[in-house]
Design brief:
With 412 residues, the protein is an alpha/beta fold. The chain has a domain of 72 residues: Dna Ligase, domain 1, CATH 3.30.1490.110. It is 32% helix and 30% strand. It is built from eleven helices and 19 strands. Strand 13 and strand 14 form a beta hairpin. The two termini are 26 Å apart. The C terminus is likely disordered.
Length: 412
């Protein structure tokens, strides 16, 4: 049996460490998991390396204890408003009389990656969307096909070099090697989207604690990504300010009594909440809580809709929008989002997982499970923990890390 692998989802509100393996039936078996509140992050970006490292250490210790295994390397998710993406085209000439080789595909991808990137940014992913061979478009895998001119449409994702370096430093401070950094909405898509949705056209919206990550998939490939600096923390903050209650009490209230649709909440339901000042406790209407939540959730849905329209692909998404992340579990959110977005909406939960899943089989852990999925699918391109495969150079997690990944994202 193959060596188990590990994944780290370092979010704004929670840090999750997972250890898992793939079963013969193709399901992901979770051997161990650790979940702790995040520290030292803001809107998906590390702001205090020491604090972030401590949270990672605690999450990893939990996962190792459950699995009875030791983590020394992990696939790590990355997000934050510093993430940007663009689409680029690359061309390579094919020697006459022979089929397209992997070297030809690599040269086309290298040409697509040759975009102007500022010195303070790094390319994270260069993902082929599709190929054109001698003017024939719609080619998904040109390897071995006969032609003279190969073109590739690639989706290129970049991030701020400082943010990337701080994330890697936090992980390495916990004694772990970063195998690869994976953009979180790409990972979440692996966990909750079906092949049919990706082929038809679907938008994934991962509403996390500090950010909302959007990824648009069409024809089986990713076409657009963006990270918005708004998430569930903003809902909690609205409750804390609007009801004059401590942040922790507002978060508990959101989780226990939160609803995105005030119309389904009784006008007489009361909630006892913590309060500032001498009174200590006070009573509020549950509908008032729902109205505050609805206002912020409507803003998030409008931001998602605006971004989908800005991408230009809003008419190419018959599968609609799949929501995941902790905020996606709010009562009443799905029908409300369907009303605002005017397209099909479902809440995505991780599929085909078994083992220690009690804490993580929900939409809130779509990214965490997706990182493990993604790492398992592409582990053959990586040296195993603590080793290098023969002839393979050890990669630095900063700069050019993902050059190998272009083959891993071939659709089909």
């Amino acid at each position: 049996m193959a060596t188990p692998i590990a994944a780290l989802d370092i979010g704004t509100t929670k840090t999750c460490a997972l250890i898992g393996e793939m079963t013969e039936a193709g399901a992901l078996r979770i051997l161990g998991n650790g979940v702790v509140p995040s520290r030292g992050l803001r809107k998906g970006v590390v702001t205090d390396v020491k604090e972030a490292t401590q949270a990672i250490i605690e999450a990893v210790a939990q996962a190792e204890r459950v699995a009875g295994l030791t983590m020394d390397a992990a696939y790590v998710g990355i997000a934050g408003a510093h993430i940007q993406s663009t689409n680029s085209r690359g061309v390579a000439a094919i020697h006459s009389g022979r089929g397209v080789t992997q070297d030809d595909i690599d040269r086309a991808m290298e040409a697509a990656e040759a975009i102007a990137v500022p010195a303070n940014r790094e390319i994270l992913h260069a993902i082929p969307r599709g190929y054109t061979l001698d003017g024939q478009d719609g080619v998904k895998d040109p390897l071995g096909m006969i032609g003279f001119r190969l073109e590739v449409e690639a989706h290129v994702v970049t991030g701020a070099a400082a943010s990337i370096q701080n994330l890697v430093k936090a992980v390495e401070g916990a004694g772990l090697r970063v195998i690869d950094l994976i953009l979180e909405p790409i990972a979440a898509g692996d966990a909750v989207l079906t092949s049919a949705e990706k082929e038809m056209g679907v938008a994934l919206a991962d509403i996390g604690g500090g950010t909302t990550s959007i990824a648009i998939f069409i024809d089986g490939s990713i076409w657009h990504t963006v990270i918005l600096p708004t998430g569930g923390i903003h809902v909690t903050n609205d409750l804390a300010v609007g009801l004059r209650t401590p942040f922790d009490a507002a978060e508990e209230m959101k989780l226990k009594f939160g609803c995105a649709d005030p119309s389904v909440v009784s006008e007489t339901d009361l909630i006892d909440v913590a309060a500032f000042g001498e009174e200590g406790r006070r009573t509020v209407l549950r509908r008032e809580v729902a109205e505050i939540i609805r206002a912020r959730v409507e803003e998030i849905c409008q931001l998602i809709l605006t971004e989908v329209k800005r991408s230009g692909y809003d008419n190419l998404l018959p599968a609609g929008v799949v929501l995941c992340g902790g905020t996606a579990e709010l009562a009443g959110l799905k029908p409300f989002a369907r009303e605002v977005l005017q397209m099909p909406v479902r809440v995505g939960v991780p599929r085909e997982i078994e083992g220690f899943t009690d804490r993580i089989s929900s939409a809130a852990f779509a990214t965490s499970i997706g990182l493990l999925h993604w790492g398992w699918q592409h582990r053959s391109a990586q040296p195993s923990a603590g080793q290098e495969s023969s002839g393979q150079r050890k990669r630095n997690p900063i700069g050019g890390l993902f050059g190998w990944a272009r083959r891993a994202f071939l659709p089909g």
